[in-house]
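User: Could you go from structure to sequence for me? I need the amino acid at each position, not a summary. Structure tokens:
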């Protein structure tokens, strides 16, 4: 056998690093493999220089130190190393470890850049229950500057957006972010309800089109949102510049943030888990502070369509003190709420006929909140929730300033169900399941809404399915039960003439699907009556009350039923029935009855079936 040694440049890096670009260094051919199997030793470099590979390593190339501690907030400040790696324009690889970033954002300003770690770690929130792997730990007070244009500004007198800080600020188009965690430091031994950790507004800011995240986790009490998708860019509007004098890049889609894909995105702890926010409205002209001039208002003209989230979890704050971040208004007025808090809030003007963004899709995503909102929808339409899981937290939560805990079943104080919308919301398509929610309030709407729910398969693990509009259940599938099935009629039965008698069977059954009630009745006697032209049966006490139509009098007919009186000539074996009218009417302000009308005859019973809309 041939023996010897040969040196080839095959990096002995971690598999994640090799995927990030090490394979660019050498072609692994059948000949190379044959040499190894024949006894040749293979040597390689663990960190080839950035001049001969297509990626950079923040540790070996820029000196980042992975000595951060998510429980104490200590460690070397690695901002300079990370920002230099991002500004290189190359793919950036982050080896496993916790990297502290103090006070300054990490700004991506290169189109198409890939930023990759070795996995975000795993665990539950807060961070004391989290095992980090590749983690960016943000400490201190994040630098704030204006980087959005949500507010309308017709003149310089109108206020502009408030400055905000962002831990990871993505401004390049077509960027990929994968396999890492973004964490805001908090001392969780301090259980005060006002302890939100170090002062940062946003964990991940998505400010350009085409962002793709894969296996990214965002943890911490971000003051604005864990993930903010900014839809306020506009054609012809000047770009922002960071305090480090890095100008945001112009892209191919300089208005809005179309086309965004997120796989297994996990967000826990922010005031809002995820915000998709655009302009509040279009003003024709927009006064821009950078240009110091009034320009055409093109903010968000391209919208924010093709936004897709696959799997993952999006939570609200879930504060470790057990307190809420905000309380719902006492009146539960959805249209009067301020910023509030919850898992997801989508609200953005777009240059479309409906003046709202569209085509947002979530697949198999879990939404969890114990705040006033779980999913809050405003200016958005054609949004789809496919096989998703909506959940109000399974713990009682204490109001902001203390007091008695609020249980999720307390719908008068807890909040706006699992999905809320306004008159500006378009169609919401739901094919999802809900658990741990209130027993009578899944969905919240507003009176006069022009949008609608396309709820073709809404379920809950307790076996019920409900849609609620402004506190009124309009669909209740699964709360369906055959109540009083094959039960004896104990309410008043009245025949005219001589009533039939003898051995009797007087039975009824009913079921309810949503507000639709279906009833069957059957009365059978062994001895026929005579001279019978009418039969009335008062509603059994457990039948739901029918909807009282506007203008209907207290003793007037409401609707018809299908039924007949059974006379001795036909019996129960299918002979010719009597020509009978069967009607349902009110007997008083609150009473209801079924009434049969036919020509005089000798009758041995009656039957009918009918359906109606329940009043509640």
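Assistant: Here is the amino acid at each position, in order:
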């Amino acid at each position: 056998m041939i023996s010897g040694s040969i040196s080839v440049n095959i990096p002995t890096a971690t598999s994640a690093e090799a995927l990030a670009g090490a394979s660019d260094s050498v072609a692994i051919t059948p000949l190379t493999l044959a040499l190894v199997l024949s006894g040749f030793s293979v040597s390689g470099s663990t960190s080839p220089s950035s001049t001969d590979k297509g990626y950079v390593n923040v540790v070996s190339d820029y000196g980042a130190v992975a000595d951060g501690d998510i429980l104490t907030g200590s460690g070397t400040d690695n901002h300079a190393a990370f920002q230099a790696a991002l500004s290189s324009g190359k793919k950036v690889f982050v080896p496993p470890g916790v990297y502290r970033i103090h006070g300054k954002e990490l700004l991506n300003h290169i189109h198409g850049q890939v930023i990759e770690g070795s996995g975000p770690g795993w665990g539950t929130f807060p961070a004391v229950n989290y095992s980090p792997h590749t983690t960016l730990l943000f400490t201190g007070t994040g630098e704030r500057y204006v980087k959005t244009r949500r507010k309308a500004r017709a003149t310089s007198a109108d206020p502009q957006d408030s400055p905000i800080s962002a831990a990871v600020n993505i401004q390049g188009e077509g960027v990929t972010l994968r396999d890492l965690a973004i964490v805001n430091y908090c001392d969780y031994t301090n259980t005060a309800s006002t302890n939100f950790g170090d002062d940062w507004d946003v964990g991940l800011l998505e400010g350009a089109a085409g962002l793709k995240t894969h296996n990214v986790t965002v943890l911490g009490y971000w003051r604005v949102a864990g993930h903010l998708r900014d839809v306020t860019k506009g054609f012809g509007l000047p770009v922002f510049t960071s305090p480090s004098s890095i100008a945001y890049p112009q892209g191919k889609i300089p208005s809005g943030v179309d086309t965004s894909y997120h796989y297994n995105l996990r967000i826990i702890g922010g005031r809002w888990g995820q915000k998709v926010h655009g302009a509040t409205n279009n003003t024709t002209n927009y006064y821009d502070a950078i240009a110091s001039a009034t320009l055409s208002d093109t903010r968000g003209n391209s919208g924010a369509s093709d936004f897709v989230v696959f799997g993952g979890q999006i939570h609200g704050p879930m504060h470790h003190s057990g307190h809420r971040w905000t309380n719902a208004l006492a009146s539960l007025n959805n249209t009067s709420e301020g910023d509030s808090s919850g898992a997801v809030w989508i609200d953005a003007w777009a240059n479309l006929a409906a003046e709202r963004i569209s085509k947002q899709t979530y697949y198999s995503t879990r939404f969890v909140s114990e705040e006033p909102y779980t999913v809050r929808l405003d200016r958005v339409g054609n949004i789809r929730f496919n096989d998703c899981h909506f959940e109000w937290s399974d713990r009682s939560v204490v109001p902001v300033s203390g007091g008695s805990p609020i249980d999720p079943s307390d719908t008068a104080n807890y909040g706006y169900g699992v999905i809320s919308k306004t008159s500006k919301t378009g169609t919401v398509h739901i094919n999802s399941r809900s658990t741990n929610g209130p027993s009578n309030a899944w969905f919240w709407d507003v009176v006069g809404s022009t949008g609608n729910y396309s709820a073709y398969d809404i379920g809950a693990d307790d076996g019920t399915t409900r849609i609620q509009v402004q506190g009124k259940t309009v669909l209740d599938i699964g709360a369906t039960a055959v109540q009083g099935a094959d039960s004896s009629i104990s309410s008043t039965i009245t025949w005219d003439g001589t009533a039939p008698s003898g051995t009797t069977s007087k039975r009824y059954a009913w079921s309810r699907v949503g507000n639709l009630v279906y009833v069957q009745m059957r009365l059978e006697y062994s001895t026929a009556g005579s001279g019978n032209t009418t039969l009335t049966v008062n509603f059994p006490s457990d039948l739901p009350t029918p909807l009282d139509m506007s203008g209907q009098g207290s003793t007037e007919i409401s609707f018809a039923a299908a039924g007949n009186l059974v006379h001795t000539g036909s019996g129960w074996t299918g002979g010719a029935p009597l020509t009978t009218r069967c009607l349902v009417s009110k007997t008083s302000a609150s009473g209801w009855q079924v009434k049969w009308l036919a020509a005089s005859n000798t009758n041995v019973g009656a039957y009918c079936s009918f359906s109606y809309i329940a009043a509640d």
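One structural detail worth keeping in mind: The helical segments are 15-20, 30-37, 79-87, 411-414.
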